[in-house]
Design goal:
Number of domains of chain A: 2
Strand order of the largest sheet of chain A: 9-11-10-13-14-15
CATH topology of the largest domain in chain A: Rossmann fold
Number of strands of chain A: 15
Structural class of chain B: alpha/beta
CATH class of the largest domain in chain A: Alpha Beta
Number of domains of chain B: 1
Shape of chain A: globular
Number of helices of chain A: 13
Helix content of chain B: 40-55%
Number of helices of chain B: 7
Oligomer: heterodimer
CATH architecture of chain B: 3-Layer(aba) Sandwich
CATH superfamily of chain B: Pyruvate-ferredoxin oxidoreductase, PFOR, domain III
Strand order of the largest sheet of chain B: 2-3-1-4-5-6
Distance between the termini of chain A: 53 Å
Shape of chain B: globular
CATH class of chain B: Alpha Beta
Structural class of chain A: alpha/beta
Order of helices and strands of chain A: EHEHEHEHHEHEHEEHHEEHEEHEHEHE
Strand content of chain B: 15-25%
CATH superfamily of the largest domain in chain A: Thiamin diphosphate (ThDP)-binding fold, Pyr/PP domains
């Protein structure tokens, strides 16, 4: 039986981890750490899970210890955010090449400087090119379900890649909402246990992990990593279908909201997509045909499917909660990329909003929609929402 | 009642506005409502002004914007009322402003510039008497639920017990419930 609980987004992640019951959870509990491991540590202390927790002295060590445990054959996890992700970067970048299926919840927060720990997507947008699967979540419910999906996806023998599961710092991370936690037995049966075909502690079958690969083999190994990434999309849908049997929900690459007949569409990730849905409903009631596309699976990016969904939309605005200084903002760049193959391309506009936790309101999104509907857009210009002059 | 009932709480860090917002939301959750409770995090240190929000609805809540037009505003410290625009977005016809103060409604009207319905309550006095600390959140909640009727007293009492029993023990739970009830009795609906 499922249970409804009033949970913060970080508690929802901890609930998923409780049901996953990993062998090892590594934690470095200091700002900007999130309460995820704190909640999880209570489950450990109360004997609700039989996970071994390893406190370490830095985020760099946290990911190092997680790698060690995963290489040994354990299901190992850690959680991070913001500067924490930045500090563990060296090891984070090594995980995909090691082909270790580590699932790491990341509560999206800004990067210094200036010092700021509030919500934006700068932390994980800096990690889009190194081979982690990335899934973004709108609210506590989604982040809980995405965690369950991610563990199976990462550990699938045709994938064996690490996955980051994102939610918006503070906005959903510390915000309490209704979350449906699904039946323990069913979820535990779904997530199963990790059964690696090779691991370091299997002394009967010794193997090497993380060796030196000079110019003769490095390229080939990296090419294999890309091949694994290519499998992700298909397996994501397969595992999503299996999860649907428990949750009754669908797990598409992205959510389309009132998109089909839309004159203007906004693309936006995570919690702001919820605010945008309310804006869409308000404007629809006033006769303005607007819609929303919310990417969920961001790495690998579903170019073909996004293109098919957006091909008939006259004008599209992409709202990014991070910048790619000197280049198009990260989500905008992907949408622009996805549409290149079309003969008749939609008009495009890039908007950046909410850096360092700057609030975004329905009225801001409505203003952007109206600008899109007016056709006054410039695909080469980056515009800013909520920025003081 | 509009589709989503929205409450904003202004306090100083340490006065328990975050748990106040959460206690209210969890009480509504027990009634089967959709809820949202979230604080605005500044560079929080004891004494700094804070804001917490609660949404209560019969329908799933999707928006994640801060509350712009609250139905009710709670001010946990009268000193804030002079420096923070506590009544911003509050409708003068239907809106409700509840302030923890020993000052009169007339005086608070002048300070806040709000000409709608203001209720005053010595929540700090209640808290100091019962718990020997300035934790006005629970009495403020008592006044809110009496005035607005959004959740029954009994449910808030249950939630207080669930929240505080392990952390604070039976005696403090009893005192908190007393504070809730005292404010509930004193507040005129």
């Amino acid at each position: 039986m499922s249970t409804w609980k009033p949970l913060s987004g970080t508690q929802a992640v901890a609930e998923a981890m409780r049901q996953i019951n990993p062998d090892v959870v590594v934690a470095y509990p200091i700002t900007p750490q999130t309460p995820i491991v704190e909640f999880f540590a209570q489950y450990v202390a109360n004997g609700i899970v039989d996970t071994e927790t390893i406190p370490v002295e830095s985020e760099h060590s946290a990911m190092s210890a997680t790698v060690g445990a995963a290489a040994a054959g354990a299901r190992a996890m850690c959680a991070t955010a913001s500067q924490g992700l930045a500090l563990m970067w060296e090891v984070v970048a090594a995980v995909p090449g090691l082909r270790l299926p580590i699932v790491m919840p990341v509560v999206n927060r800004a990067l210094s400087a200036p010092i700021n720990i509030h919500c934006d997507h700068s932390d994980t947008m800096g990690a889009t090119t190194i081979g982690w699967i990335q899934i973004f979540s709108e609210n506590g419910q989604e982040v809980y379900e995405n965690m369950l999906l991610a563990i199976r996806l990462a550990e699938h023998p045709d994938v064996l890649l690490p996955a980051m599961v994102m939610q918006d710092g503070f906005i959903t991370g510390h915000g309490v909402e209704n979350v449906e936690i699904f039946d323990n037995d069913k979820v535990r049966a779904f997530v199963g246990t990790r059964n690696p075909d090779r691991y370091l502690l299997d002394v009967e079958h010794p193997y090497t992990i993380g060796p030196l690969a000079l110019p003769d083999y490095y390229f080939e190994i990296k090419r294999q990593q890309e091949e694994a990434m290519k499998h992700v999309k298909k397996i994501y849908l397969e595992i999503g279908k299996e999860l649907s049997k428990i949750t009754g929900k669908e797990y598409p690459y992205f959510e389309s909201y009132k998109l089909d007949d839309a004159d203007a569409v906004i693309v936006v990730l995570s919690s702001t997509a919820g605010t945008a849905k309310d804006t869409v409903d308000k404007m629809r009631a006033e006769g303005k045909k607007v819609g929303l596309l919310k990417p969920k699976l961001f790495r690998p990016f579903p170019y073909k499917e996004v293109r098919a969904a957006l091909k008939d939309v006259p004008v599209i605005g992409v709202l990014d909660r991070s910048m790619a200084f000197g280049a198009y903002a990260p989500v905008y760049a992907e949408i622009k990329n996805a549409l290149f193959e079309l003969d008749k391309k939609p008009k495009l506009q890039s908007y950046v909003f909410g850096l360092g936790g700057k609030d975004i309101f329905k009225s801001d999104i409505e203003k952007a929609f109206n600008e899109l509907l007016s056709g006054e857009v410039n695909s080469e210009e980056e515009r800013y929402i909520g920025l003081r002059g | 009642m509009k589709e989503i009932y929205e409450v904003r709480m202004h306090a100083r860090a340490g006065q328990g506005a975050k748990s106040g917002s959460q206690l209210l939301a969890e009480s509504a959750f027990k009634l089967g409502k959709w809820i949202q409770s979230f604080p605005e995090y500044g560079s929080e240190r004891r004494g700094a002004p804070t804001v917490s929000y609660t949404r209560i609805s019969d329908k799933r809540i999707r928006t994640h914007e801060p509350i712009v037009n609250p139905d009710a505003v709670l001010v946990f410290d009268q000193g804030i009322a002079g420096s923070v625009p506590v009544a911003q977005g509050l409708c003068e016809e239907q809106g409700i402003l509840i302030i923890n103060t020993t000052k009169s409604v007339e005086e608070m009207k002048k300070i806040t510039g709000f000409n709608g319905k203001i209720y005053t309550l010595d929540a700090t006095g209640i808290s100091l008497k019962l718990l020997d600390v300035d934790a006005p959140n629970v009495p403020m909640l008592g006044a809110l639920i009496k005035i607005t009727n959004i959740v029954p007293l009994k449910i808030v009492e249950d939630v207080i017990k669930e929240h505080f029993l392990v952390r604070l023990g039976e005696e403090k739970v009893k005192k908190n419930k007393e504070g809730l009830r005292k404010a509930w009795e004193e507040a005129s609906s």
